UniProtKB/TrEMBL annotation:
Residues 20-57 are annotated as: Disordered. It comes from Actinocorallia longicatena. Residues 43-52 have a biased composition (Basic and acidic residues). Coiled coil: none annotated. This is Nucleic acid-binding Zn ribbon protein.
Amino acid sequence: MSEDEQPKKTGIELAREALAQARADAAKRQSVPGQRRRNTRVTPRDPKRSRSDPQAFGATIKKLLADRGWEEKAAVGGVFGNWAGIVGPELAAHTSPGAFEGGELVVNCDSPAWAQQVRLLAGQLVKRLNQELGDNTVTRVKVVGPQTPRKPGQWRVR
C-alpha cells in the first residue's frame, strides 16, 4: 500500500475523531462537552412541571432564538424563503431579495422597468414586510436593477 492510499476509516473511528475535535474546540472555549452551563437567570418554575418534562418544540425554538438574539435574522430568512408569498407571484418572477442589513432590504430586479415599478411600490412593500416581520424591522427598500454593462454610444441618436 502506497502513502497516497490510506485505509478507509470506519464509522467508529470517524466518530472518535469528531469527539476528539469537539473536545479540543471546547478546551479552547474553556468548556467541556456534555457539561451544562450554569443558568444564571432566575426563572419561575411551575411546581407541577419538572425540567426533565418534554417541552413544546415551537416554544423551545422561540426561546432559543430570543436567547441568542436571532429573532430578526430568522424572520428575515423566512421572508427570503417565502418571497413569492409575500410580494405575489408576478413581482416575485422579476425580483428577488438580495440582502438585509440595518433595516434596509436590497431588492434585485431583472429589468430597469421592474426596478422602476418596485421603486414606486417601495412604501407598500415596506408596510407589507413589516406586517410579516414586526414593526420597524424594514425601514427602507433599496432597488437594484440589472447589472449589465452598456456599450458607449449604444443608445445615442445620430
